[in-house]
Amino acid sequence: MHVRSLSWAAVVAALTLASCTSAPSSSPVTSSTQGVTVVQTGQVTEVKDVTRHDGRSTGLGSFIGSILGGIAGSNIGSGTGSAVAGIGGAIAGGMAGQHAEQSNSSRNSTELTVRLDNGEARTFAVAPEDNFRVGETVRVSTNNGVVRVTR
């Protein structure tokens, strides 16, 4: 009788442990101590180089360019000609300074459009040196809002 009670206990324990296991999930989700990572695959449908301007201008380039252009222009000629040359130099210097400031505030990136396996199309900004090609299969990993596109 004592042997039978041990057998029943073993059967109950085995059934309890079997019910704790779950079937493997078909969705590509990986758990870690750093959160949940969702991995999707897709195909690159477009690769486009983009130059972005951040739109911020301090005006410092225009200001310095105007001063330098005004000084340089006023050294041309004498009298009224010097004043006119100074004004022209200030205007040209201001425009040149503004252009120089804007060109320093732009950055180049590459936009990558990917058609995911679920049919959704998404566009990502990637570094220009990554050299993705149209038709290439990629993995899109998302972890805590941070997205990475890799081969």
From TrEMBL:
It comes from the Bacteria. Residues 1-23 form the signal peptide. Keywords: Membrane, Signal. It holds the Pfam family Rick_17kDa_Anti. Residues 61-99 form the Glycine zipper 2TM domain. This is Glycine zipper 2TM domain-containing protein. The keyword Cell inner membrane does not apply. Its main location: membrane. It is found in: Membrane.
